[in-house]
Amino acid sequence: MAKRKSYHQFCALARGLDVVGDRWTLLVVRELLLGARSFRELQDGLAGISPNLLTDRLQVLQEAGLVARNDAPARSKAVVYTLTDVGASLKDVVFELIRWGARWMATGPGTDRVEAQWSVLALRALLETRISGDNSRRGVVHVDVEGTPVTIELRDGRRAVRPGHSGIADATVTGRMPDLLAVASGIRDLNAYLQVQGDRDLAVAALSTYDHALEESTDEVIATP
Fold it and tell me: Is residue 158 part of a domain?
């Protein structure tokens, strides 16, 4: 049994943090929200985590009922991990943290690692909860995030974000992940940072939440501890 730290407080927040509050744990959940992963795939997505620490985090999550593994023999390359229903219910928590943490993304990645596959979760968190200004707009936008395909469908003022390219695209958007997330966060103007083919107005409605006032206050926001 994995050793789990505890705050020893009869509080739902404390007990939740007993399970997911350790370093790397929510990032393991992030990787599994993208789909089933082998141990090696998790290591690749979590560069910097040691094999022993990843094993410990997975054991804690399994014992808490958040993660399940298939029946492949131990240490087999066929072993894969998935989120249980309880684990998948952390999606809203992860998405809210993505939205909250977006204010510190404006400075760009610097020397931090960038993985285009993370853009799928980020775009879902940043865009799916927002209503576009023109509720009559409908259409499909294909996004190419440094080789990672994403589809955004706009219907009745709502945006649905899916991995891969599906449907017939009314517009195609291409850009670097940092620029794309800055646009979706409302920090940057789509027209200045992303390449668009097809229906530009639809692309703006699907991706842009740009606010001039936010851009002017970006330096202040980033400097806030």
Answer: yes
